[in-house]
């Protein structure tokens, strides 16, 4: 059986706030660690029937980029729900929300 590994390393300051986040994966095209400013991981607990989440961002990540990051996350989830379930209505509603949020950012 083939396995794939994804690793995250988070450097924290004295207050346990992320200063630097790097990641690497066995299936990543480029070799070596890559820096990122934010990660959002969701895990489904099939026993408790709920989602476990890890959201981290480096303290130097600009707020406007954070907002775009979350819009992109919702858009990615819209595609995932369509691929995983075929639910076009749910996917479209999520994409509609993304468009509303993009419009909100443009007005700000």
Give the tags:
two-stranded antiparallel sheet, 108 residues, alpha+beta, 2 helices, three-stranded antiparallel sheet
Please describe what this structure looks like:
The chain is α+β, with helices and mostly antiparallel strands. The protein folds into two domains: 1-60, no CATH class; 62-108. 40% of the residues lie in helices and 31% in strands. The protein contains two helices and five strands. The mean pLDDT is 97.
Summarize the structure.
40% of the residues lie in helices and 31% in strands. It is an alpha+beta fold.
Number of domains: 2
Strand order of the largest sheet: 1-2-3
Contiguous uncertain segments of 5+ residues: none
Q: Report the count of strand segments.
A: 5
Considering DSSP H and I runs of 4 or more, what fraction of the residues is helical?
A: 25-40%
Beta strand %: 25-35%
Provide the gyration radius in Å.
Answer: 17 Å
SSE pattern: EEEEEHH
Mean pLDDT figure? 97
**Tally of individual helices:** 2
The coarse silhouette is globular
Question: How many angstroms does the end-to-end distance come to?
Answer: 50 Å
Structural category is alpha+beta
Main β-sheet, in a few words? 3 strands, antiparallel
How does the SSE layout of this entry go?
Layout: E1 6-12, E2 18-25, E3 34-36, E4 38-45, E5 50-57, H1 63-85, H2 88-107
Helix pairs in contact: 1-2
């Amino acid at each position: 059986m083939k396995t794939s590994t994804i690793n995250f390393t988070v450097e924290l300051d004295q207050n346990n706030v992320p200063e630097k986040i790097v990641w690497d994966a066995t299936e990543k095209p480029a070799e070596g660690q890559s820096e990122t400013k934010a990660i959002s991981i969701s895990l489904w607990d099939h026993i408790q029937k709920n989602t476990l989440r890890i959201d981290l961002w480096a303290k130097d990540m600009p707020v406007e980029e954070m907002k775009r990051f979350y819009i992109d996350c919702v858009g990615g989830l819209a595609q995932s729900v369509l691929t995983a379930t075929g639910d076009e209505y749910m996917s479209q509603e999520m994409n509609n929300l993304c468009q509303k949020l993009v419009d909100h950012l443009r007005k700000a």
